[in-house]
Amino acid sequence: MRSNRAEESAAGLDDVRAAIDRARARLGRLASPIECLPTTSSTNDVALARCVTTAGEPSDAVGFVVVADQQTAGRGRRGHAWFSPPGSGLYVSAVVAPARARVDASRATSLLTLAAGVGVAEGIARATGLRPDLKWPNDLLVGRRKLAGILAEAAPGEQVVLGYGINIAPAAYPPELQDRATSLATETGRAVDRVRVLVETLAALSSRYEDLLDGRFDVILDAWRALSPSASGAPVTWRTNAGIVAGVTAGIDDHGALLVRSDARIERIVSGEVAWL
Fold first, then answer.
1. All domains of the chain in start order, with CATH
2. CA distance 163 to 67
3. Is 63 within 8 Å of 29 (Cβ atoms)?
4. Which residues is 268 bridged to in the sheet?
5. Residue 119, C-beta contacts closer than 8 angstroms, at least 6 positions apart
6. Interatomic CA distance for residues 195 and 47, integer angstroms
7. CA 137, CA 228: separation in Å to the nearest integer?
8. Own/partner long-range contacts of 228-231 (Cβ < 8 Å, ≥24 apart)
9. What is the Cα–Cα distance from 118 to 67, expressed in whole angstroms?
């Protein structure tokens, strides 16, 4: 059984390389080169290592993409684990450099995760017809169930490793995820071509990355707002130094911070754990 699984994985990764070659003109700066792995601890770890030379100095790895069939130590935001079984998901990391934007590099960097969310959502829609919602700052949902997540991690120099995981097929989720996770196959009612999802999400990410570099921030923000109904009018709580505070979402600002109305004032949340009620 293990041998069959390994053979299937190797064949699948060959399909990935061939599909990437066919789609090269649509991928812009991304996936040149690409590394395909049957299993790894975390695709972000591989990409982060690529950003450093053997001498420990930063290397220019922008455009590098790694995709794996399985992660043994996948991770999400704020140290959460990302369940990454073989054959059931798409686990991808890309090295980008929003600080090289030609207009307002600081703002481009602050909007990277939102731009990535738009790109992944658009790629999923193109590949499957399913249109997931975005939840600030980095989740893709169908209803209240998580379909995909995004994790951006700083790398040496100006580089950022942008990782994303998409649940493609149903899996034996751990008990704590059974009522909170879903997959493309579950939501569409049919088998989903992982390679097509990979190509379409990378192509959409490439397009949104170019928007960032060229300073088309309003285009990104408008697209994100259209895909995120929960960004306005949703009850939430979040933790502050004074304790738990409750409010109602009131959109995002031009730098991607979540706005929440609480006690007749607007709070600006840049990071931290927000609970959606």
1. 2-226 (3.30.930.10), 230-276 (2.30.30.100)
2. 10
3. yes
4. 259
5. 201, 204, 205, 206, 207, 208, 209
6. 20
7. 10
8. 228/133, 228/134, 228/135, 228/136, 228/252, 229/133, 230/133, 230/135, 230/136, 230/276, 231/134, 231/136, 231/258
9. 20
Q: Is it the case that residue 1 has pLDDT exceeding 70?
A: no
Token match 């499957």: residue? 128
- Find the Cα–Cα–Cα–Cα dihedral 131, 135, 140, 144, rounded to 10°: -90
When pLDDT is cut at 50, 70 and 90, the band that residue 264 belongs to is: confident
- Beta-bridge mates of residue 238: 245, 274
Instruction: Give Cα separations from 29 to 61, 150, 157 (angstroms).
Output: 11, 19, 18
Contact between residue 198 and residue 16 where contact means Cβ atoms under 8 Å apart? yes
- At 276, which amino acid appears? W
In the chain, which ranges are E strands? 34-37, 65-68, 89-96, 133-135, 139-142, 145-154, 160-167, 232-240, 243-252, 258-262, 265-269, 274-276
Hey, what are 208's tokens?
């949104």
The model's pLDDT over 89-137, given as tens digits with 9 standing for 90+, comes to 999 999 999 999 999 999 999 999 999 999 999 999 999 999 999 999 9
Cα–Cα distances in angstroms (integers) from residue 66 to residues 39, 215, 242, in the given order: 11, 27, 42
Q: Check pLDDT > 50 for residue 2.
A: no
pTM for this prediction: 0.92
